[in-house]
TrEMBL record:
This is Ig-like domain-containing protein. The chain crosses the membrane at residues 152-176. Residues 1-26 form the signal peptide. It is found in: Membrane. It comes from the Eukaryota. It is a single-pass type I membrane protein.
Length: 236
């Protein structure tokens, strides 16, 4: 009985160790989930990986496969091992370019002059023996006629336009107030100059009034003297 339990425990430990070893040696492949591009342009399908085993040109192999949105089978259309092997037939012929660098953990490719038939799911698979376990990563590519504005993009454009409009209104208000204040200061200066002239005339008149009064009094005095001594004029 003891031997049976011992064998059972040994088998369980062996399974756990083997599963743990596989998990440690599992390669991690990462890609964006969704990607949108415009018909007739180039798009880079980014794929990166992490391996617990040292990476070299001879050890790493990369494969890309494609499954269309509609009915159709999944097909491998690109392979890399020390050098790229692009498709020589099919609708990907002349449209695939290697743009990765396995020494930098980059397994990306570029699709050139994308067509609407390129809509579908792309799978990136990387192997680096003995690190061969792990899951492939998928990208859902959507090819559109023109760029679609997202809700965030529309909101950002609306907010930006509102800010520009507010700044424009504030600028116009500032300019109008500036010119109003400037014309107001000029009008005040003109009024002050006019008031100064009036005050000068008003102050000038009282200064001349005593001289005229003295001259009038002098003439009145001479008349009075002539009336009092008329005989002097006769003798003369």
């Amino acid at each position: 009985m003891f031997r049976i339990w011992k064998r059972f425990l040994i088998s369980v430990v062996g399974v756990l160790l083997s599963s743990g070893l596989n998990h440690v040696l599992a390669i991690e492949v990462s890609t964006p989930k969704d990607l949108t591009t415009v018909n007739g342009t180039d798009v880079r399908l980014k794929c990166t990986f992490k391996s617990t085993h040292p990476v070299s040109e001879k050890s790493v192999s990369v494969s890309w496969s494609f499954k269309p949105l509609g009915p159709g089978k999944e097909e491998q259309f690109f392979y890399y091992h020390e050098e790229p092997f692009s498709p020589e037939q099919g609708h990907f012929k002349g449209h695939v370019m290697w743009s990765g660098n396995v020494l930098k953990n980059d397994a990306s490719i570029t699709l050139r002059d994308v067509q609407f038939s390129f809509n579908g799911t792309y799978t990136c698979q990387v192997r680096n023996p003995p690190d061969v376990h792990g899951f492939a990563s998928e990208i859902r590519l959507e090819v559109v006629q023109s760029v679609k504005l997202s809700e965030i993009g529309i909101l950002a454009a609306a907010v930006g336009g509102s800010i520009v409009l507010v700044l424009l209104i504030l600028t116009v208000v500032f300019i109008v107030r500036y010119f109003r204040n400037r014309h107001g200061d000029a009008a005040i200066e003109l009024q002050d100059s006019k008031r100064g002239s009036v005050c000068f005339l008003e102050e000038f008149v009282p200064i001349n009034q005593p001289e005229k009064a003295l001259e009038k009094d002098k003439l009145q005095l001479q008349d009075d003297l002539e009336k009092k001594h008329p005989e002097d004029e006769i003798d003369a």
